[in-house]
C-alpha cells in the first residue's frame, strides 16, 4: 500500500518534519510518496531516511517538483 504526502510550497524544515510524522502512519514495508518544491529536501529527505532507518527508494525532480518514495522499515 502506498500513501501520498503533498508538501509543495513549504520550506525547510516543514517538509521533512511532515514526512517524519506521516511515516508513523505507514505500515511496515509500505511506501510514502512525498512531493515537495523546496530544493533542500533532496539533501534533507536522504538524511531523514538515514537517521530513521527508512529506505529512500527514489528521489527525482519533475518540473520543479521533487518526488521521493520512502519505504517504512520492515
Total count of strands: 4
- Mean pLDDT, as a whole number? 96
Measured by DSSP, the beta-strand proportion falls in 35-45%
Report the helical percentage: 25-40%
The total of helices stands at 2
SSE order, as H and E?
A: EHEHEE
What would the principal axes of the Cα set say about the shape?
A: globular
> Rounded to an integer, what's the Rg over CA atoms?
11 Å
Largest beta sheet: strand ordering? 1-2-4-3
Low-confidence stretches: none
Largest sheet: 4 strands, mixed
Distance between the termini: 13 Å
Supply the helix-strand structural class. Answer: alpha+beta
Present the secondary structure layout.
Blueprint lengths: L1 E5 L7 H10 L7 E6 L4 H12 L2 E8 L2 E7 L3
Parallel strand pairs: 1-2
Antiparallel strand pairs: 2-4, 3-4
Helix pairs in contact: 1-2
Q: Can you describe this structure?
A:
With 74 residues, this protein is an alpha+beta fold. The protein is built from two helices and four strands. The protein has helices at 14-23, 41-52; strands spanning 2-6, 31-36, 55-62, 65-71. It has a four-stranded mixed sheet, with helices on one face. It is globular and about 30 Å long. The mean pLDDT is 96.
Overview features:
74 residues, alpha+beta, globular
Quick overview of this protein structure:
The chain is an alpha+beta fold. The chain contains two helices and four strands; from the N terminus they run βαβαββ.
Amino acid at each position: 500500500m502506498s500513501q501520498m504526502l503533498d508538501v509543495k510550497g513549504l520550506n525547510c524544515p516543514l517538509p521533512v518534519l511532515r514526512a517524519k510524522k506521516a511515516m508513523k502512519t505507514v505500515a511496515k514495508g509500505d511506501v510514502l510518496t512525498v512531493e515537495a518544491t523546496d530544493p533542500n529536501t533532496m539533501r534533507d529527505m536522504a538524511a531523514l531516511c538515514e537517521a530513521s532507518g527508512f529506505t529512500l527508494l527514489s528521489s527525482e525532480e519533475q518540473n520543479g517538483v521533487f518526488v521521493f518514495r520512502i519505504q517504512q522499515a520492515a
